[in-house]
Structures are given as structure tokens and as C-alpha cells.
Specification:
two-stranded antiparallel ribbon, alpha+beta, 3 helices
């Protein structure tokens, strides 16, 4: 029953946020013609790795520069990325992981 509730809420939030998400995804793609998504491997329940999906807020391959932390003035953050980070919109695509059941 909890799984059905989680999936239902995740779908509802994604649908309701789509008028905001779709333009942000388009602007992120349009800024440099690369995928608007960032995929990172994280460890979920039971130590099982899964691919986390977020809206990309930094330049392509920023994670390969060797820098572990970022500040709000980090030059790797894109102009759209500043907006996405400010309002935590980069986290919304993680709801797809809830729907897919990747985090368990």
C-alpha cells in the first residue's frame, strides 16, 4: 500500500511541476546543447547502488574536475543552474527513481 502511495504522489508532483520543469529542461539543453540531466551513482537501501537523476546545474563534466564541494559563486554553475539550485528544482527528477523503485 505504501508503494502505491509513493508512486501516486511522485507522479502527481511530476505532473503538477511539469509546467516549470519542461521550460527549465529546455533552457538547460539550449544553453549548451547537452543533456539537461545529470546522472550520479548513489548507494540506496541495503547498500545497493542506483543511478540518481537530477537536472544538470553545472557545465558538462564538472564532476570530473576533482573539486568536491561547490559554493554559490562556483564558475562551473550555469546561469540556469543558479535558478535551478536556488529553488531546488534540480531534485525533482529524483521522483522518477521513486516510480522506478531504484532507491530500495
Amino acid at each position: 500500500m505504501k508503494r502505491i502511495f509513493d508512486i501516486s504522489i511522485a507522479i502527481l508532483v511530476l505532473v503538477l511541476s511539469s509546467p516549470i520543469l519542461l521550460p527549465i529542461l529546455f533552457l538547460t539543453y539550449w544553453s549548451d546543447k547537452h543533456s539537461p540531466f545529470y546522472f550520479g551513482v548513489r548507494v540506496g537501501k541495503g547498500e545497493h547502488p542506483f543511478k540518481m537523476m537530477k537536472i544538470r546545474s553545472m557545465v558538462v563534466n564538472a564532476d570530473k574536475t576533482g573539486v568536491d564541494s561547490t559554493s554559490s559563486s562556483d564558475p562551473r554553475i550555469t546561469p540556469v543552474g543558479h535558478i535551478v539550485r536556488r529553488y531546488k528544482l534540480d531534485e525533482l527528477p529524483q521522483l522518477i527513481n521513486v516510480i522506478r523503485g531504484d532507491m530500495s
